[in-house]
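Dear colleague,

Following up on yesterday's call, I've attached the two folding results inline so they're easy to grep. Please treat them as preliminary; we haven't cross-checked anything against experimental data yet. The first protein's sequence and structure tokens come first.
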Amino acid sequence: MKADDTDQEVAARLESLATERQKLTIPDVAPFVEKLYDSPRGSCGCCLHIVLDDQNVADDHVRFCVTGALERQHSLCYGIARCLLKMSKTQRLKLAMTKGRVDRR
């Protein structure tokens, strides 16, 4: 992924991942999480903060984020959340622990 990729290009890649693959891995999703945190809206995890920052990784938590992203029309969060549903809870937790930006004092 390039830094100058448009939101539409990124959303298209996420849609492709979420629909074409049965299972996803941390390396599949991590670049999109990094792009989210680098975006103006994503500095604190945006629609996904309960998963990425608070480490609530159950399916219901991720589905809640899908709904929130749809309501806010935030395609990046929506795409990432759909991809998270293709990951195990253990993978989600590892992703949150390595790419989330929660203060762990």
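Below is the second protein, in the same order (sequence, then structure):
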Amino acid sequence: MDNNYGIINYFYKQFGKLDLKKLFYILAFIVFSSWLADGLSQFILLLFSLFFKQIEIQNILLIFIQLIPSLAFFIFIYKKIRTHLDKLDVIKYTVKEIIPNNLKAIIIFLSKPNFDLNLLNSINSIDDFKKEEIKSKRINWEVPAIIIHKIINDLKKDLKIIYVILSTESKGHFQEFKSFIQKIIGSENIEILFNENPIDFENLELTIDAVHKAYESLNSKGVKNKEILIDITAGQKIQSTAGGFYASSYDRYFCYLSTNTKKLHIFDVIYNFE
């Protein structure tokens, strides 16, 4: 990943493109916030001074110097937001294809098998999917298998955990999927986890919540957000929407495997209000 990109993408996601105008507003907000707090505290002290008749002219001037510009600034910001409130509904996205420095975990949505599970006995490697008798079956577990294989072998990443989100329809097939993946990658060292409460893949809210819980589980194992990938290739549009939506936050990435070229694309979405 480009080092300069890694440094500034946080600011892009929080403020959009940081031009001079936005920089001025940020600095003014910091300065006038401080002045407003100081001015209000001095104003309270002034009230006590009036009670004891111990008033100093320079203190009154300082209070007005701090309060008037800061109040004027925040009134200006309030009116500007009110005037342009409709523009806050317009979100512009910047999408960058990347290869993260570290990938330790991937989150996968597992759909129920659309094939005879006995076919898995004939698949011992990724290359077996190229055989015509296997290719013609259009096995839907091919996509996650290829993605995991590419991360380990093509991108040379030290994948530690595969987190499988199960649906109410695929919950009974986790062990078959786990054994299949371990056979394809030729290792049992990668930990394969799953959500304890299978969800309805037709429910967007539950799907987003399942992704959130997956992140919490991986974070608890010491995996950082930027080391996690969400696969949005397989399954229904609800899963893709949930994965893409959740990955749009800072330091989260999602991937898509082209069904035509079998090329793995990893994206970082930067969004800002204009």
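For the second protein, one point worth flagging: The helical segments are 3-15, 20-52, 57-83, 132-135, 142-154, 174-185, 204-220, 237-247.

Best wishes,
A.L.
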